[in-house]
Write a structure and sequence with these properties.
heterodimer, A: 343 residues, 6-stranded mixed β-sheet, 4-stranded antiparallel β-sheet, 11 helices, 26% strand, globular, B: mainly alpha, 13 helices, 78% helix
Amino acid sequence: MTQTVVKFSELKKKYHDLIAVNDLNLEIYQGEVLGFVGPNGAGKTTTMKMLGGLIKPTSGQIEITNGNGSLAKAREVPSELYRRFGFLIDIPAFYGHVTPRKILGYYCRLLGVPKEKIEKQIEWALKIVKLTRWKNKKIKEFSKGMKQRLGLAQAIVHEPDVAVLDEPQTGLDPAARIQVRKIMKKLKDLGKTIFLSSHMLYEISEICDRIAIINRGELIAVDKLVNLEQKMTKQEIGVELLEPINPNNVNKLVKEISEKIKAFSENDDKIPVVYDENIPGFHIYYDGKPSSRKNIHKILTSDLKLPIIGFSRVRTSRLEELYIELVENNEIKYTQNNKLKRR
Amino acid sequence: MKLNILKIINLRGDKLMALNLEMKRNLSMNQIFVIYKFELFLHRKRYYLMLILGLVMYNLTAIILAFSPPPDVKLFMASTVGQIGSLLVFLTLFFAGGVLADEFDKGTALTNFTKTGRDNFFIGKSLAVFTSVLIWNGIPLFENIIFSLALYQQVPLELFSWFVFYCLVGGTYVAIYLLFSAIFRSGTQAMVMAFFFIMAGATAFGILLGAPYYFPIYAEIAVIQIFDPSAVDGVFIIDLSYVIIMLLAYLIPCLVLAYLRFRTRDV
């Protein structure tokens, strides 16, 4: 049975008239990587701050694992929260005139890491974030990316069971982002639970077991990516051809395919087929049903006799589309509710 | 009506009990000690500066006086330790002015408060700041013991009374600074406002109430009574016990309010 390590129940945070988080119900299971996705101001950081005890919820409760398999209110077991959880929230800030070694040592002592283990833990954390060379340099000399990596180091230095990471890739260059992704994969391999919020949807789809989408403080979806994809009304197939199509024939072919697969595409006015000369091939948008996919394949190969060498569902853009679709639907619902309230 | 009052009292009692329980759960002597030590380490440069300033100032005054020493050891002390009052208000500002506000302003609270309870943090930091007052007052105490032994071959007990009294004065300044630091978002803003309150606001309050005891900086004038019990400040006969009560009346509420504000503040 999967053990719950964090449970948010009816969690709410209000700032005067603004509801930052609205009746959030969410569970995080041991050993999983849960991606927390949403637009700016959706309530991701507020939720994480409430979990870390940085802000008080207006109502609702947060329960965390207390080590023996049962859940306890986070406020009642603060030492469990400090020791079992590691937080990287927002843009991390440190006292400028100390060194990473000193600050990590300070955190280790605060968290009760045994004296003889402190140096080892510091070395381990700095090695993971690749800051070993800078361990004795003052933090004020660090770049934004280095501070972000140090932020990650302070979150894991005491080897917590749960890492709460709020947009850990913010402000990082592509190389550093890859490095951070590798760190998260390493933590996942170590069996750690990760609660990760990010704008980098690709990163999320790469490492997360489940995804929770939040908008205007409300949780609008939470499931495995595969299951969420099933719920999408529109899905995409990437079709790769052996060789590019003669430019003069592209429009005619696109029109022909569109006509033939019309029954399997969404009921909108958009053309369900787009030719991409970079592949070379097509992006085909359909209703997501497995039977439709089978039929489209048959039309392309048997009816139109196209030289297809690749036929697959596109994953990298899946989450982005899913995210946009869910958030847009939620926005429409929100606007309609507001109009009704005004009436 | 009676029932309502009882209800209110009951509610308050419950809340206080809950607060007390929560504080007990969060408190950890080890964490307080770690924070205290780190805070002292963090301001290492400030302590060096303070030590140099203290040594230079007292040595200079004491050396000048040593050339033509006053006939009484108490007069000698009134001329040396009586000088540091105005510096104490700046010194405490230096250490306590932005100590809490900066955590929020600079964002270090985001990492620190996920590793320790705010109760521990507040106590650890406050103890470190109070230590700076002890150190600062300890320098003239130590030097005056040496000078009075060298010049007068005796150490009057008043010197130790002065030390305790000045620690109370410094502690009061610290408590006021901590309160402003817990309220304001920016460290600089907290420092300016608290300093203005001590130098002008509280003074105006004292004048308004018609007695000088109501403002903390009066303690710097009143200190003279420790060495000369018959001293007057021109208008008022100085009563040191009043001054002590007023200092405590600032120190305790300011400290409690600072703590309550600090622990409930959103990051």
